[in-house]
Structures are given as C-alpha cells and as structure tokens.
Amino acid sequence: MVYIPGFLINKVYESGSLRNTGDGFVFSFCNRMTPLEISGLRDLKLEVDGGSQAAENIRMTLGGRPIELHGGTLTETVTFARESKLEIRVELMWRFWIPTFLNPSR
Prior knowledge:
By secondary structure, the protein is mainly β. It contains 1 helix and 11 strands; from the N terminus they run αβββββββββββ. The longest helix is centred in the N-terminal third of the chain and has 7 residues. The C terminus is likely disordered.
C-alpha cells in the first residue's frame, strides 16, 4: 500500500470539491506543483463508512479525459499536468439494513 502524507494531500485536494451526486459522490485533486506521470496504479481500494467499494464503481477523469481502470489497475501511463484536475467519481453500492426492532425474525 502506498502512503501519501497529509501535507501532500492538502496541497492537491481541491477544497470544496467533495459533493454528493445522485448515486454517490465526487471529489477532485488539482496539481498545483509540477507535471508528473502516473504509470502505476493497481489494486485500487476505497472504503466508505467502513464498507469496501468495488473498483468498478470508481470513475476517474484527468483534464476531462476518462482514465481506464481495469479491475482497479491503471493500464496506461497518464500525464498529470500542472493546473490540471483529476476528478474521482464514486458510485456507491448501498447496503440496506433493517433495524433489529423492525426485523420480526430476530
């Protein structure tokens, strides 16, 4: 697992970008530092409220161009140019539960 220090996240996370969508949420990063290439991303994992989300439910666009993830793995090298935006959209897989006092089988 790759650890990204908080001070670095604070430099690239686009403040105020986290918002709800009809089927999940979206947030973005903006590269304010130097151009870089992303060449290795694999086994992408995301947890929301303690529940694991499938990589197939994560959509990424870089500078408006979709980034293809196959099974949570990046299959191509992409350039994250200075001042470009990486948007991450997550379609949540909701799990419904019935409170114990409403569940007659308990």
